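Progress note, project year one: complex with D-gluconic acid.
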Amino acid sequence: MGVSLFNLEGKIALVTGSTHGLGMAMATGLGKAGATIIVNGNSSKQKIDDAVAHYKSEGINALGYQFNVANEAEVIQAIKKIETEVGTIDILINNAGIIKRTPLEEMEVADFKQVIDIDLVSPFIVSKHVVKNMIAKKEGKIINICSMMSELGRNTVGAYAAAKGGLKMLTQNMATEWAKHNIQVNGIGPGYFATSQTAPIRVDGHPFNDFIVNRTPAAKWGDPNDLQGAAIFLSSEASSFVNGQVIYVDGGILATIGKPSNED
Ligand code: GCO
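Model obtained:
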């Protein structure tokens, strides 16, 4: 018992969407706990190479693989390549995702479907192909990045809420089906964090910026590094009997009804 409980030495972790933002923050946490990081993005090779260089500058062993998590053929090819060149994946964090902020009555069906495809179907696709070797090894960790919108609705993010609500239930079903293989599947639900994804609603003076600070008992936006502890916990021996749970790292948003703006 003790420090080895959280030690990820010798583990290989694939974090989708880990060239920036929350994915990079969580992958950095796993890397500093000893894991080798498989960096993924669907962007340019240069962006992935730059991200790998950043991880290495932090003393983290990292390798980059460009593939689109929504394209099953690309996923199959990439996982085969990773398993050949690096080794079987011990930890999978399904982080890659998009958001489209449009009132439902104005949203194009194609846009709605794209959000569902990337935020809900892709974690299924990647998990389906990574879990094969986890089942063979009788060991594995899968973490799905959920959201406040796994529990709550908000104006203009209906497609995203549908996807993230579904991802919470998919997490519970993956846990149900794969726990017998000593594979723990859980979720992390970030609150509101200062990232490029929230930049448009976080600018000073934006009504949403003030709203979130007031709605969050910790009275601030989260720092992406605040997610590292939950990611390490759910990737390590410390969570070997935790299945199907979503850990909300939200500064207390889901714990409260909120307060009037003139109240401290
Ligand atoms: C929004 C935000 C949220 C956060 C996060 C909250 O528009 O409401 O972008 O979706 O990004 O998902 O958990």
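The chain has a mean pLDDT of 96.
The helical segments are 21-32, 45-57, 72-85, 109-137, 158-178, 207-215, 228-235.
No further modelling is planned for this target in the current period.
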